Amino acid sequence: MTILAIFTESAIPCTGLEPTIDIYRLDTGVLVVEDQQMEEVDSGQYSYDFTDWDSSIDYSVICDSVTLTGSERYAYSVIPEQTDIKFIRNIEGGKWEITGNQMIFSDEDNDAAVAIFNLYNSDGDASEVNVKKRERA
């Protein structure tokens, strides 16, 4: 995951900085990236490639411009967990199949089931036709 920070001085993009980045896991408070150098992109933008990112974890990010002062010295962010987004991508991107009275949703690679729903007709009976209701199995 690429993390981007923008630094300005008096509202003007600030170039030529050598900012550092710290990243904390919010669930444990553990510092997982400490004082790593960010790369200048352009127009006051600096990036860091967070290679150890785990989509199921929330992180907080503090970017330190080092040389700017006051409120312009730091850039802050939170990286929320992406588990729900990954689930939605799997549901939308994988195959759907009705087997018996169950609808099975596979992951994007169609390797594994990510969700299974029991299907029912309007009388509440298990059914694969005239489905009116589904419940997560």
What's a concise summary of this model?
With 137 residues, the chain is mostly beta strands. Helices cover 8% and strands 47% of the residues. It has 2 domains: 2-81, Immunoglobulin-like (Sandwich), CATH 2.60.40; 84-136, no CATH class.
Radius of gyration: 23 Å
* Share of helix, binned: under 10%
| Quantity of strands, as a count | 13
Proportion of beta-strand residues: over 45%
Low-confidence segments: none
- Element pattern in H and E: EEEEEEEEEHEEEE
Q: How would you characterize the largest beta sheet?
A: 4 strands, antiparallel
Question: How would you describe this structure to a colleague?
Answer:
This protein is 8% helix and 47% strand. The protein has 137 residues and is mainly beta. The chain has 2 domains: 2-81, Sandwich (Immunoglobulin-like); 84-136, no CATH class. A 4-stranded antiparallel sheet has the order 5-4-8-9, with no helix packed on it. The longest helix has 11 residues, at 83-93.
